[in-house]
Amino acid sequence: MNFNGIKIEKANFKVSDVFSYEGTVQLWDKNTSIALDFPKDKPEDEYFDILAEKITEQIKWIEENREKIEKALTDYGCISLAEDWASSAEKADDEEQECYIMEDGQKVFFPISEEEFLNSLYFESISIDFRSDTENPEIELFISCSPDYFAYHVLHVSADSEKNVKCRGLAG
């Protein structure tokens, strides 16, 4: 299966000590780590072959539902959360506008606009869990920001088997 130039085949993934398989895909214009979990009633490589199309569908769903994911983050209050975290960083005294220097060295000016916040988002990693439902797996998304508003923490977002998206707060 091809999606965004990535071939979803076993050759693009490796067996993992923690998950069934791990690999990398291109999502939201960045390379993203992906973990796959399969039921234990068959060999994992057999499941990979059986579910290759479903894996591609899930990756495509994530790529095509950015607005839904972003809405879950804004509804949760992640922009004000970003301002709370950023305001605990070192204040930049040489700026006319309120500004803080994040741990990654980038400057953040207040207030943080919705556009700035949403443009900062990228996937740190994703997990697709087929263990309880091979037709409608659950998805866990771990989203970082650049600038790093949350001091090396990530936003945790989940999509259940019906693709209801929910922000679960910070992780890490």
Q: What order do the helices and strands come in, and which of them pair?
A:
Elements: E1 2-3, E2 6-7, E3 13-15, E4 21-27, E5 30-37, H1 44-64, H2 66-76, H3 78-86, E6 90-91, E7 99-101, E8 107-109, H4 114-119, E9 121-129, E10 138-145, E11 154-159, E12 165-171
Parallel strand pairs: 5-9
Antiparallel strand pairs: 1-2, 3-4, 4-5, 6-7, 7-8, 9-10, 10-11, 11-12
The residue fraction in helices comes out at 25-40%
Q: How many domain units?
A: 1
**Could you give a short account of the major beta sheet?**
7 strands, mixed
**Tally of extended strands?**
12
Q: Could you tell me the strand content as a percent range?
A: 25-35%
- Specify the overall morphology: elongated
> Helices and strands, in N-to-C order?
EEEEEHHHEEEHEEEE
Rounded average pLDDT: 92
N-to-C terminal Cα separation, in Å? Answer: 33 Å
User: Helix/strand-derived class?
Assistant: alpha+beta
Produce a short descriptive summary.
With 172 residues, the chain is an alpha+beta fold. It has four helices and twelve strands.
What does this molecule look like?
It comes from Sebaldella termitidis (strain ATCC 33386 / NCTC 11300). Pfam families: DUF2262 (PF10020). This protein has 172 residues and is of the alpha+beta class. The chain has one domain. It is built from four helices and twelve strands; from the N terminus they run E-E-E-E-E-H-H-H-E-E-E-H-E-E-E-E. The protein has helices at 44-64, 66-76, 78-86, 114-119, and strands at 2-3, 6-7, 13-15, 21-27, 30-37, 90-91, 99-101, 107-109, 121-129, 138-145, 154-159, 165-171. The strands form three sheets. A seven-stranded mixed beta sheet has the order 3-4-5-9-10-11-12. It has a three-stranded antiparallel beta sheet with strand order 6-7-8, with no helix packed on it. Strand 4 and strand 5 form a beta hairpin. The longest helix is centred in the N-terminal third of the chain and has 21 residues, at 44-64. The mean pLDDT is 92.
